[in-house]
């Protein structure tokens, strides 16, 4: 007896038929806008002209940049060998099939495989670095002295945390949101939107030491000696290359609030395993921590 289709399958099949009859043949993986012809798609890349659309347009001039832009937008680490030649990699059905693949698949060995097949991904993609700061004293909110239960001090086992997984922790998120009104002026002063030498990259970085004002936030996120930075995006950009694998904590969202294809909200922390795209209007505390405390109670 043939299996009954689920509601989801049925609706997917209908959508596929609708798409087959529509004029949409290609999708921009950044905006998911549809196009009938590849030349119009490429025209769209050139019109948008931000770093990511430029990257999508660069498969002939700089394949590594193209690949990292493509993978960043798709949220899928499709290895170069498995990627159809442009413009077929923008084919509407191919994009739909693979879009967001990595955020749902916990299969780490797949990532490792695609990593080794694209060793140049990091060295060529929008390679800007940000200043890094280091803890001089160990951080860590002392939960024990407040009568709470002792938190595990075992580091987050990385293989259990997917790329772009939000480290949900209602308590920590609420505490960060409560701290932000007092920090907002300082954030604006430290990361001013004008007169920045880093404007070309679409990212503003601090020109002063940000260690002390960020202590209350860091105390909520981890224990021990961490390395961190603070950035503000005013264009859609790539995450900084010198701290590709880190916990990103969102201190402000003006705009779509996207890290890769994952929507983020103020106070949330998200695990980022490799360079990805960041939407404009974010202020982010990015850190590499010995023991991540946030999200452990999930
Ligand atoms: Zn686009």
User: What is the number of strand segments?
Assistant: 15
Number of helices: 10
Q: From N to C, what is the helix and strand string?
A: HEEHHHHHHHEEHEHEEEEEEEEEE
Give average pLDDT, whole number.
81
Q: Give the distinct bound molecules.
A: zinc ion
Strand content: 15-25%
Please state the structural category: alpha+beta
How would a crystallographer describe the biggest sheet?
7 strands, antiparallel
Helical amount: 25-40%
Rg from Cα = 21 Å
Number of domains: 2
Give the low-confidence spans.
Answer: 105-125, 143-154
Distance between the termini: 41 Å
Overall 3D geometry?
Answer: globular
Q: In words, what does this structure look like?
A:
The chain has 298 residues and is an alpha+beta fold. The chain folds into 2 domains: 7-124, no CATH class; 133-292. The chain contains 10 helices and 15 strands. Helix 9 runs antiparallel to helix 10. The longest helix is centred in the middle third of the chain and has 21 residues, at 170-190. The chain is globular. Residues 105-125 and 143-154 have low confidence and may be disordered.
